[in-house]
Amino acid sequence: MKIQYNVRSFKTWLTAVVLVTASASSFAQKADLDTLLKKFDRYRVSHATEKIYAHLDQELYLTGEMMWFKLYVVDGSFHKPSDISKVAYVEILDKENKPVLQTKVPLLNGMCNGSLFLPASVGSGVYNMRVYTSWMKNFGPEFFFQKTVTIINTFKKLEIEKTKPGPKPDAQFFPEGGNLVAGLKSTVAFRVINSSGNGIGFTGRLISSSNDTIRNFGPQKFGMGTFEFTPVYGETYNAIIEDEQGNTFTYKLPAALESGYVLSVKDTVNDVITVRVTSKGALAAMPFVYLFVHARNIVSNATMQFLQQGEAIISVSKKDLQEGISHITVFDPGMQPVCERLYFNPVKRKLSIDIQPSQREFGIRRKVVLDITATGPAGESLPSNLSMAVYRIDSLSQPMGSTILNYLWLASDLQGTIESPDYFMNTEDTQVRKSLDQVMLTHGWRRFNWKDIQGNSAAPIQFVPEFRGHVIHGKVTDVAGNPVRNVMTYLSSPARNIQVYGSVSNANGEVRYEMKDFSGARKIITQTNSRRDSTSLIRIESPFSDKYATWKTSPFTMAKTAEKQLITRTIGMQVQDIFYQDKFNPVKNNAIDSTAFYGKADATYYLDDYTRFPVMEEVMREYVPGVLVRKRKDGFHFMNLDVVNKTIFDEDPLVLLDGIPIFDINKIIAFDPLKVKKLEVITRRYYLGVLSLPGIVSYTTYTGDLGGFQLDPKTVMLDYEGLQFQREFYSPIYDTPKMRDNRLPDQRSLLYWDPAVITSRDGKKRVEFYTSDQTGDFQVVVEGLTTGGMSGRGSILFSVQPFDN
Question: Would the pLDDT of 744 be above 90?
């Protein structure tokens, strides 16, 4: 039988098969991309990030002075004020990461102002200030705000750190995209820094294993630069660096892979970036890749691109990118990330802050008037929340390293320290843009692991956000130190406003107490119900992070020319301390509710209004009808009436003495009633978090300190620092001749600090303050942000002269 082939029909059939196959493949690829987008979005929601910026009044302090600061907490994506956390943690760390000062401050709508008094126990040196929230601890210490400050202790002999011959410079080499691949041309970025983290000048050579020079290279700015070369598989490459002193050092480059992907990102003149992906020997049967671009977890681009002869070129419009740092990630056909690099899109949404003084020169003790105007990129007026510092410029002054603008848009999204970060924000300059791209290549960092996103479950969240107030963490263990679960624990603090907190230990023995209005130095008491659990122990843990990022600080030095200024400032500080010390006492928050947690009691008894009985049993039996006293084999018990259900509870109520739970009724019966001022009773079931209380009996002593009552030996009592009470900056007013002629000296070098400069709807705010007896040049620094997430900084100089004007 003769078989005849219809060529045209065969071609039609073959084309259809190819189209169907391609269509099915494209559908599968789109499904993979959609799945990644969904997982990424789910991760973004469950792992929302925060950023913190701290505006300090200065960057150099003397012991005995006050460090003033304003905190701005924003969401990590849009930089709008964040209301997730209500507490921030501030630490001053020495070179060994040991805290010399710590405090907790309350946050309201993402803002807070606070202060730290620098005691004489702090030695002279360069310190690291870091700030974070409890929620931020889930993402690592690299995410904390960090800033170097210099503290000088003039009460001790200054010990200047001797400058030793520097160790081998830290040289790092970063192939663009992540890896070198044999036979594929790659761009390699480098960064060479000294022990203080600052870039150095040098000349470099790239050599092969046979000592052939392949490339000469050198830094362009801050020890950074790039060079290109095509590596050979199996070959080893070394970089020879000679510093400006003639010292030579050798560094080994990363080895080239036999196969893989190389990424190259270039700017074009048409507001388009070109992303070039080149592959060698990788998944040749499926010649396509996925491109995923996001900035601060906001996705800008997600596409699939076929490789033609091992190469794909993808054009991405800058208009489609978010402002600031974008992460450009390439995935292989198996949805595994194979290349990644950062790209910075210039920030246009900047807050402009204009400061106009009433004049440029002032006399001593004269009024200074500053008119502040906040505008957007189009000149529109913007209401904004700002902070302002006015301080004297002298040889001790140090330039402000970070600003709210460069921190939020640059430093907070990069790994390690950025030298002179403000330099990189002038993106109109071609050289600056080039240097900025080198920063992107050498400081790449992602706050997440792609495995956490693509897997079925992300890394567990260990630290809960403090939505309503400070959370005290503890751990319940047995006598051997093993965690104990399902133990009811109680925390209380002797105070006029009675508060009790309960927490049940989880599988790891962890307990958490969400505190309300918990401020100032307090004593806290933790315990279990001794009648039900007499063996478990409770340990309160520090809320401060014990994880530290690598943070390099410069050695402490002091120029000889600064000695005179140091003496002047020291005398001024001591004068202010003598005459105005009472002006800086903490201001307590009078808005704290002093009512007990249970509100108004069902019955209240002031014992002086009744016949005084010498025995507590008689007091309870004679004129507290809502509480029945019963004596059983194991001793006394209270049973409160349940007026809601018209019955009697068959369990002991929660008994409090000055707000402290007492579980042994026998001890309360034995307590001297003449020490008790007030007795309150709740005759209904009361729910308090995890606690279900069959009524409450609360005793208050005259002194509020337990009146000598002996607590159970297993009760843990310790001193605990609550949230900081805020201080108000004192600025004297010289509005009359009599005030100006006041003989009290005024040696303020910090003329003014205002953490709450709020501009009106028209973007304007007038600020007034007075100069001191100090003359010279003074710097005004104002920075902050809008509710929409625009940030900015403004500054001016004015002078104070000894003449009268």
Answer: no
Coil vs helix vs strand at 718: strand
DSSP collapsed to 3 states, 361-382: EECCCCEEEEEEEEECCCCCEC
pLDDT digit string, tens, across residues 248-301: 999 999 999 999 999 999 988 778 999 999 998 855 556 899 999 999 989 999
Quick: pLDDT tens for 586-630.
665 545 566 889 999 999 999 999 989 999 999 999 989 999 999
CA–CA gap between residue 209 and residue 254 (Å, rounded): 13
The structure tokens 């003790």 sit at 365
Taking the C-alpha atoms of residue 466 and residue 472, their distance in angstroms, rounded to an integer, is 10
Long-range contacts of 219-222 (CB under 8 A, 24+ apart): 219/190, 219/192, 220/431, 220/434, 220/435, 220/438, 221/431, 221/435, 221/438, 222/191, 222/198, 222/419, 222/420, 222/435
Q: Give CA–CA dist 655/658, Å, rounded.
A: 10
Is residue 726 over pLDDT 80? yes
Name the β-bridge partners of 475.
510, 539
**What's the rounded Cα separation, in Å, for the pair 220 and 94?**
32
d(CA 637, CA 651): 8
pLDDT, tens digit, 9 for 90 and up, residues 80-139: 999 999 999 999 999 999 999 999 999 999 999 999 999 999 999 999 999 999 999 998
Task: Quote the DSSP letter at residue 586.
Answer: P
pTM tops 0.70, yes or no: yes
**Beta bridge partner(s), residue 131:** 90, 145
Helix (H, G, I), strand (E, B) or coil at 706: helix
Question: What's the start-to-end Cα distance of the chain, in Å?
Answer: 119
Q: Which two tokens stand for residue 316?
A: 């991405």
Distance CA 340, CA 561 (A): 49
Angle (CA) 449-452-453 rounded to 5° is: 100
- For the chain, the farthest-separated pair of C-alpha atoms sits apart, in whole angstroms, at 126
CB 501 within 8 A of CB 524: no
Nearest to 568 by CA among 397, 366, 338: 397
Residues near 461 by beta carbon (within 8 Å), at least 6 away in sequence:
46, 47, 138
**Whats the size of the chain, residue-wise?**
805
**HSE-up of residue 167 (Cα within 13 Å, Cβ side):** 5
Residue 296's nearest CA partner among 183, 203, 409 is 409
Q: What pLDDT, on a 0 to 100 scale, did the predictor assign at position 573?
A: 81
CA 332 – CA 289 distance, rounded (Å): 5
> HSE (CB half, 13 Å, CA atoms) of 758?
5
Write the CB contacts of 126 (distance below 8 Å, at least 6 apart in sequence): 95, 148, 149, 150, 553, 554, 555, 556
pLDDT at 165: 60
Amino acid found at 616: M
- Distance CA(657)–CA(655), nearest Å, equals 7
The Cα angle at residue 644 between residues 642 and 650, in degrees rounded to 5: 25
Map residue 578 onto helix, strand or coil: helix
